[in-house]
Amino acid sequence: MSILARQIVSGMVAALIISFSLSAVVFFAFPPEDWHLLWHKKIMGMPFILFVPILSLVGGLIFGVSTGLFWRRQLQGLGDALYQLEHGNAPSPIESYSIQEFKTISSRMKKVHNHLSEQAKISQKLTAEKVVEQEKIIEEIVSQERNRLARELHDSVSQQLFAASMLMSAITESKPDLKSAEAKQLKMVEGMIHQSQLEMRALLLHLRPVPLRDKSLQEGIQELLTELSQKVPINITWKIEPILLDRGIEDHLFRILQESVSNTLRHAKATNLEVLLIGRDDLIIMRIVDNGLGFNIEDSKTGSYGLQNMHERAMEIGGTMKIVSVPNKGTRLEVKVPMTVEVEEND
Question: For residue 64, which of 8, 14, 40, 292 is within the disulfide window of CB 3.0 to 4.6 Å?
Answer without folding.
Answer: 8
